[in-house]
């Protein structure tokens, strides 16, 4: 007999809750849809009613309409805040990806500049006079000492040193960045 009464009570509770739901759901969805997308609005409203249904025992009577609107408003605010955080994070990651790409480009550009610089050094070495070029290559590419170079080429050590000095001076002069037209002004009193 109690089970029949509980079923009757449960079915009456269900019917009254269904009427309560039907009377409010469309107004709440329209309200929420002003601030969030329609699918999100529906989800927020259905979650609210599910929460009310699950806590039905703690309510003496079903919540008022003003309670429902405040609850929906708060859920919309929370949703929008979460979306803002998510979008900020996505924007941050997109900017970080662009910065990493620029750093890669910068390192690639530096590599190209270094490669071009090295090629220019080789070109200038090849432009040295033959004897100077030969001595320079033996000293810097084959790590030969001045005395060894002198013996190999049948020259004096002093000649080898002088040729290396001339080669380095020529390279320094040719590879030094061109200075823009800087004029010196002299003021006479």
From TrEMBL:
This is RNA polymerase sigma-70 factor (ECF subfamily). SUPFAM superfamilies: Sigma2 domain of RNA polymerase sigma factors (SSF88946), Sigma3 and sigma4 domains of RNA polymerase sigma factors (SSF88659). It holds the Pfam family Sigma70_r2. GO terms for molecular function: DNA binding; sigma factor activity. One of its GO terms (biological process) is DNA-templated transcription initiation. Belongs to the sigma-70 factor family. ECF subfamily. Residues 21-84 form the RNA polymerase sigma-70 region domain. Keywords: Sigma factor, Transcription, Transcription regulation. It comes from the Bacteria. PANTHER family: RNA POLYMERASE ECF-TYPE SIGMA FACTO, RNA POLYMERASE SIGMA-70 FACTOR ECF SUBFAMILY. It comes from Dysgonomonas hofstadii. Residues 119-171 form the RNA polymerase sigma factor 70 region 4 type domain.
